[in-house]
Write a structure and sequence with these properties.
Elements (H helix, E strand, L loop, with lengths): L2 E2 L23 E5 L9 H10 L4 E7 H4 L10 H12 L3 E7 L14 H17 L6 E4 L11 H21 L4 E8 H5 L2 H7 L8 E5 L12 H19 L5 E6 L12 H16 L4 E6 L27 H15 L1 E10 L2 E8 L2 E8 L4 E8 L5 E6 L7 E6 L10 E7 L4 E6 L2 E5 L1
Parallel strand pairs: 2-3, 2-9, 3-4, 4-5, 5-6, 6-7, 7-8, 8-9
Antiparallel strand pairs: 1-18, 10-11, 11-12, 12-17, 13-16, 13-18, 14-15, 14-17
Keywords: Signal
GO molecular function: hydrolase activity, hydrolyzing O-glycosyl compounds
Protein name: Glycosyl hydrolase
Length: 434
């Protein structure tokens, strides 16, 4: 058998960046919600989000809900109920300043002086009203859809962000500002590149991306192809900016609809686990918000109805249960690229929390057995979280085999498939034998 040592990870720097993620920047586990304008299930939704390990909610602060009459702005009562319920569950937030207003060029983008001035008034009012309660403001949502390859569209957006950022810093200086909310098409057509070239990366706290791949063909829709694509984007933006650009994936998921872009519920669950762990391997990715918490409807063929972790009656999908099982590792453990590797469609990712180490492992394609060698004297049963059966939590799955000779390694054989296994190693290092 051929032994693959963790030192081979240096060959994989194109996929896994060297170095552990900074301990002072915890990875954000978030989700999108659609309840800021009111919901009878508000408290229960936030309870379920908190129980799943979600730490941040993303919501739209619609301009049209604030300015119901020209020149008259007010905070809807439902917003205060939302804020109270969110704070009660100790959930952080992203507030999106977005969408047009019927009184200004019939909901037009704020590109003309008239609409831009009115939008600035709305931003000034909202950021004053919400000051001290917002972690991130995001400037507009998917502006690039107006012309993902059009420089004039990106230039106008960059100008809007500069003005909006100044207002936010003046009214709510502790809040961070995200720009972009860039779609997959925008990413492929250079919208993010042009924002960085315009100097926007130096004026905001990060770029937000919506890198969906659910409608891509074949293997291009898998988490593994997704992270390779995101890696190339990350590296390009770093080169253009001359430094690392913080990236926030404020929307990402796979829908469980019955149409061509949908997946079944077990596939959504395993894609969620793999995508979250792969996102953790990129130090510039600071968090990911699953879109969204609750399905928006029940029509099986309507894609927009089925992105959620919960069904409309708040019944959990398998993806919700998986997220609940993996969230402690995402939030509390740091990725160590020097002890991780990938070869032959095997993913072996090492995460540490102090002296405690876990190996997150899966195989793409056919299942296969691997022998895990722990460079330490393990005791008793192998403890593992199997995301195929996440409700079991950390459970015993066989025993470590430890020879009597002290210099020999303890080993165990694990069958891997496309659902990640989270194998507890304690304070031992590990070697992988195929």
């Amino acid at each position: 058998m051929r032994r693959l040592l963790p030192c081979l990870a240096v060959l994989l720097q194109g996929l896994f960046t060297t170095g552990a993620q900074a301990a002072n920047e915890p990875f954000i586990i978030g989700t999108a919600t659609h309840v800021m304008d009111g919901s009878p299930q508000l408290g229960r939704q936030f309870q379920l989000a908190s129980e799943a390990g979600i730490g941040s909610l993303r919501e739209d602060a619609y301009w049209a809900r604030v300015e119901l009459q020209p020149g008259t702005l007010q905070v809807p009562a439902s917003w205060r109920e939302y804020q109270d319920a969110r704070v009660a569950r100790k959930l952080d937030n992203v507030v999106v300043l977005d969408y047009g207003n019927q009184f200004y060029d019939n909901n037009a983008l704020p590109r003309s002086p008239l609409v831009a001035t009115a939008f600035a008034n709305y931003v000034d009012f909202v950021t004053r009203a919400l000051a001290g309660t917002v972690n991130f403001y995001e400037v507009w949502n998917e502006w690039d859809q107006a012309g993902p390859g059009d420089r004039a569209v990106s230039d106008d957006y960059a100008s809007l962000v500069r003005l909006t950022r100044q207002q936010i810093q003046r009214n709510d200086p502790k809040a961070k500002v995200l720009a972009g909310a860039i779609t997959s098409e925008g990413l492929n057509k250079g919208f993010a590149d042009r924002l960085v070239q315009a100097g926007l990366a130096d004026q905001v706290d990060g770029l937000s991306l919506h890198p969906y791949v659910h409608c891509a063909g074949g293997q291009d829709r898998t988490p593994e192809s997704w992270i390779k694509w995101l890696t190339s984007i990350d590296q390009k933006l770093t080169r253009l900016a001359g430094r690392a650009v913080p990236l926030y994936l404020t929307e990402m998921s796979w829908p469980t609809s019955s149409e061509r872009c949908g997946v079944d519920e077990p596939t959504q669950a395993k894609f969620l686990a793999r995508a979250f762990f792969l996102a953790k391997t990129r130090p510039n990715i600071k968090g990911m918000w699953w879109y969204d918490l609750v399905d928006d409807g029940v029509d099986p063929a309507e894609r927009e109805h089925h992105f959620g972790l919960l069904k409309p009656d708040l019944t959990p999908k398998p993806a919700y249960v998986v997220l609940k099982a993996i969230a402690p590792f995402l939030a509390q453990y740091q990725y160590d690229s020097l002890k991780s590797l990938q070869a032959d469609d095997l993913y072996l990712l090492n995460f540490t929390k102090g002296d405690d180490q876990v190996l997150v492992a899966w195989a793409v394609g056919r299942p296969r057995q691997v022998k895990i060698e722990a460079n330490g004297r393990q005791q008793g049963s192998v403890q593992m979280v199997d995301t195929r059966r996440p409700e079991r939590g950390r459970a015993p799955v066989g025993r470590w085999q430890c020879p009597k000779a002290e210099e020999e390694h303890c080993t165990t054989v694990i069958t891997l498939d496309d659902f990640p296994r989270i194998i507890s190693l304690g304070d031992a290092s590990w070697l992988f034998t195929r």
